[in-house]
Amino acid sequence: MTSQESKRKLSAIVSADVKGYSRLMSQDEEATVRTLKQHRVTISGLVSEHRGRVVDSPGDNILAEFGSVVDAVKCAVKIQETLKGKNAELPENRKMEFRIGVNLGDVIEEEDRIYGDGVNIAARLEGLAEGGGICISGTAFDHIKNKLSVGYQYLGKQTVKNIPDPVRAYKVLMESEASGKVIGEIEPNQPKWRWKAVAVVAVLILVAVGLVWNFYWRAPKIEPASKEKMAFPLPDKPSIAVLPFVNMSDDAQQEYFSDGMTEDLITDLSKISGLFVIARNSTFTYKGKPVKIRQVAEELGVRYVLEGSVRRVGDQVRINAQLIDSTNGQHLWAERYDGSMRDVFSLQDKINQKIVAALAVKLTAGEKTLVTQKGTNDPAAYEEFLRGREHYLRYTKEDFPKADACFKRAIELDPKYSRARAALALLYYDATVQGLIVLDALKMKYNEACLRARQYLMESMKEPTSTLYQVAGMNDLYLRQWDVAISQVEKALTLDPNDPACHLTACYVMSYSGRPTEGMEYAKSGMRLDPLNPARYLAYMGYAHFCMGEWQEAIVAIEKALKLNPDVSVGTALILAAAYSHLGLTEEAKAAYQAYCQRVGNAGVPLFRWPFKDRPVENSFVEGLIKAGAPSRLLVSIHVSKEDRLTGDDLRALYFPSMTTGRARDGDGAEWSLEIAKDGTAVLRSPRLTGGVDTGRSWVEGDKLWLQFHNYYYGVAHCSSTFRNPRGTPEGKDQYISFTDVYYTKFSRVQ
């Protein structure tokens, strides 16, 4: 460090924080945060009035410089007097009493920062002050004892943390009758400071914010949670809930940033198999609410709770966090992390490391890598990703296009940002599930959304994520590659064993793939990780029960899900309709089927999106829907068997070279033909194509055939899974059935 970068000087330091801030937050978090922000403005104004200059105010600190130690103490007194008047106007749950410590000592100045023992002693003295009071060091007292109309009470020499020598301490008496008095013994032969020049005096005001600040030097008592009252038994591994970090930025628009930081902490911790981590959906139900640690622990069934705040001022970020053991009300640690946006990933890693160390969790070599993987080193790209995720999680037709734009901007800023590409894949997949309302908002057709989801999946494979494997598993399920789909969700669970969405996807894939009993267990595991958001898990349990032929159990689970959230899933109504039919509840079955039609129109049931591996399950589904009033002509069975699926070698033998032909599934049934040369060059001919013809290329990967044309399917590469059709004929042009992400096609090879 050069002399141009930093310098030492003698400064007066003032440290202040709020007494009982955690209690205030638990009573009314929103009002407390609002009052604190107002007090920060008041304090900054008083610094200016006393000829001070605020040089920094990140998070819970206001750092200012004064021309004299007298001005510094005058400012501290004025702060207490002003805030006392403001407190008198406030209700009890918003009154704030600050404790202030003042020291004159040696500090280091580096750009706009000051630090050193001079600052540390002031912070320790603040801990000795009473609420609404001021405690000053002996060095400050020596320079002001006859210059201000206040009195002093000597508190003796105090041993404070991380300072080797005891510190003389004085309480400032602000009552008018105490003016000029010094109460108590004063040590003889006090050392006198000699000034060779006018010292620059700095004031540091530590304004406690969020849920943590009051715990730096003292931890308020927290009422322990009762294990007997917990909604769920504690897991056999350390269990933790991360509460939404409070946004302490003056700009409310920074909410996405504090939420994003919270979600990323949850995401990183959930990758650790040695932890049990409650899902974001459940912990965010407490956002903006005055809740106690005991309540959170008992409702979620966890031992540890992490809470904190985020403040961002320009490029500077401050994160405050504390970890609490709910079973005894003790704080395992409380820390403050400062840095610029360039350091944001490092700050997150430090918090993760603290938690892992505090809970004595051992990470595997793979987990050590996963937890530190952020996907990008570009803070601007990361910010766009956070904004996009904030919009996506709102799950509205207005927010889907905004999320789409944010994720794309993140990719523009960092073309290698795989996590943003995986997020786009999930966005487009969900758009296909939600239907026309969302697709219209995205200005995208169903076919294109399906294809774009696969496109972004393939582009994000270089740095795979749990999200990627979940979407890939769902897509492979529609290709009737059940074993591959199961493999994909197993990979997702390996990367993120605490992600309830992984467990939910596993339930869905397992149920359709002929393993509904296992699927049921995954749904239960997911609901335990996300206990305050049970609707989706109950709905998927209904799917699993249906696949096991348990009609009554399916109805009970789905009815509970719909009662909690009527929009839980469009397809749930069909499972319910079929189950009602099998129990002879005809009117209920018809009502459920009509509810489905009202949501999606009367186009019938796309069995392509119901990829049952077991034919008896598909048959019971179709039969139940027909009884519920679904037109049988629209329920065209396309069931295929795993034994009839073509392997990669089979595909090469069938297609390279080949001429295949088929008929369009709808409309005029126009014929099409596909010619593939030995080198993979492909020519597609159809009267529905512009000019009647399109050219492209083809190749085989695993058991999938890939095709990419210049114009057809928007020029996007798409894959298919091919099956022999035992009942097909050359004349019917249906010897084979091919499934893509969009739909299915029947065709025959021209001999």
Describe this structure in words.
The strands form four sheets. This protein has an eight-stranded antiparallel barrel with strand order 17-18-19-20-21-22-23-24. Helix 2 (29-49) packs antiparallel against helix 3, helix 13 runs antiparallel to helix 15 and helix 16 (466-478) packs antiparallel against helix 17 (482-495). It is elongated and about 110 Å long. It has four domains: 6-215, Alpha-Beta Plaits, CATH 3.30.70.1230; 227-372, Rossmann fold (3-Layer(aba) Sandwich), CATH 3.40.50; 463-634, Serine Threonine Protein Phosphatase 5, Tetratricopeptide repeat; 642-749, Lipocalin (Beta Barrel). It contains 25 helices and 24 strands.
| CATH superfamily caption of the largest domain | Nucleotide cyclase, GGDEF domain
**How large is the share of residues in beta strands?**
15-25%
Mean pLDDT: 84
Model regions low in confidence, pLDDT < 50 over at least 5 residues: 187-219
How would the global form be characterised? Answer: elongated
Largest sheet entry: 8 strands, antiparallel, barrel
Distance between the termini: 80 Å
**Total beta strand runs:** 24
Structural class: alpha+beta
So what's the CATH class of the largest domain?
Alpha Beta
Number of helices: 25
CATH architecture classification of the largest domain:
2-Layer Sandwich
Taken together, the total number of domains comes to: 4
Strands of the largest sheet, in order across it? 17-18-19-20-21-22-23-24
- The CATH topology of the largest domain, please? Alpha-Beta Plaits
Radius of gyration: 33 Å
